[in-house]
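User: Can you write out an input/output pair for a complex, sequences first and structure second?

Assistant: Here is one pair. Inputs:
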Amino acid sequence: MPLGASAWEGEGNGDPGARRPAAATNTLTLTEDEMSSVTDRQGALPRALALLLLVAVVAAACSSSGSAPPSTAGAVPSPGFPVQIAGVTVKTRPTAVISLSPTATEDLFAIGAGAQVVAVDDQSDYPPAAPKTSLSGFKPNIEAIAAKRPDLVVVADDSSGVAASLGKIGIPTLVEDAAPTLNDAYTQIEQLGTATGHTTEANALVTSMRAAIAAVVAAQPHRASPPRIYHELDQTFYSATSKSFIGQLYTLLGAHDIADAADSQGSGYPQLSAEYIVKADPDVIFLADHLCCGQTPATVAGRPGWSVITAVRDHAVVTLDDDVASRWGPRVVDLVKAIAAGLALAPPGTS
Amino acid sequence: MTAVAGAAGAAVDRPRATRWWVTAALTLVGAAAAGILVGPAGLPVRGVLLAVVGRFPLVHVHSGLSPTDRAILWQIRMPRMVLGGLVGWTLAASGAGYQGVFRNPLADPYLLGAAAGAGLGATLVIAYAPRASGWPVDPVPLAAFAGAVAAVAVSYLVATATDRRAGAATVLLAGLAVAYFFTAVQTYVQQQHSATLRDVYTWILGRLTTSGWHEVWLILPYVVVSSAVLLAHRRLLDVLSVGDDEASTLGVNTVTTRLIVVGAATLGTAAAVAVSGLIGFVGIIVPHTVRLATGPSYRRVLPLSMLGGAAFLIAADLIARTIASPAEIPIGVITAFFGAPFFVLVLHRRSRV
């Protein structure tokens, strides 16, 4: 009977993008799911009271974003507003920003908009000053977001239709998807600068990031042939090709990604065979599954057959900060530096 | 009636029975050979053959394989093939056992919540046990094993509490309830720890990709014990197939028999799940194929399912690791891709009986 297995695989599916759209309708027709999770959070709140509250919140949200005089104190003088970013209109300088994207959180704080951020999602752990809450970016709860009365929401993943739902109750929502390239990451920083009234700081940040990365690239030694690298996303050998965001950084620093040969479908994130990795014999192994999955140079060396790999023999197995390696914010500079330091371990003679 | 027919069939068709044994054994040997010779690293066939021959006592040949190729052959490809065979062997045998003991053609090794229990066990460890902190062994397979056994035990206890004789239908329904309950808890824990999503997902999709001899030694004892107990009960399974009441009048203790067979099948399934994650359909399609070919007697269905299951999973894993080489396709995709249409066929044939 496949029931146990299939029900579990469906619900336990780790890909947040594959989830069913939760709340594509407007807030007044909440799904059972959202209703129950709200009552759970606030204890055994009677349904009627919850509805009342909801109506109040919606009314408040509408009035604060409508043409009526804004109720929030800091928003009265708004030079440079309204602004238009990717089809989203931000009418006044936002003073209650919610970020449901760890990358956007880092961006906002790096461009000096941190003081305008009132809440961030449960995965936004950097910088430490960010007001972390139990809000989820994977499974956004529209009502919980609306209850914080934001005047701007930033999300990284809109598979559940959160932008449309919030838009219906007058809350402008920016969708800053996973950046496919460095330039897209820069564009997102600039967009967040425009949306929060920190255009100058955003431009300055982008300029400094470009300069810092260019400096690392320029400092790369000349090599006869590119060092072969293997970037590990998890301990079942999911990797990233040079088409992916992270893979482009390796290319930028002159490395050859062994996962490139495996990417027939162009997903950018193929799962490699162990025997292929051993055969491809990478010079440097980068572990982006250190924090999540406990992988270390020692566990890699202990894998069956891996002791013959050049990177293992030469102690060129490098752990990356999983979080930094999976975001596309200002700390990309740190990531580039970490990769450059790892590449320096590649044997100069053979490469 | 089935038992009588099966016994009569076995007596009459001795040459045909031999043919099935030879076919199953040859299929397994063929799958194993292909599994060793073919792979993403593209090892030289002659070198691999010589290396394998060189392992036999008193044979001294030089394979000409490089140290890297030898490491790939002996430490990656060979244990993965063996482990795939053991997992397929066990899942098919357990599936056949479950089908016999519950007289239900749709029974599979995960019927009584083994998958849900394993999933909960693995998720709890991934979410709450600090990783990378000097565990002598990886705690995830152990937790998965314990979770699978616990789920089936709870199913049985719940069933016995409701129905002292633990009838097949009661146990099945209890298993269904327990599976859903464990899945709910697992999903909740996973939702509360979304940072662990990736690790849990990785586990679900299976670990044959990372296996070595360690996993083989880990599950071998369970496979041996489970298989021995199941084989010892193959005649009783034939008797059970006439129904609980009829089997009782023939002097079979149906409650005890069912408990022992389920226990053995669960032990094997839990061990398989612990090292390989969830691999569906093997436990259903292999016994049914054998049944369609050789008739319903468990005296043939059980052992032939073991050989067939091993061959099937080795072949499926071969496809999984070569079809998109050097990328992997999750093995569950391969088994279900072939298993699902087959499942429909089985249902179709059954509906015409």
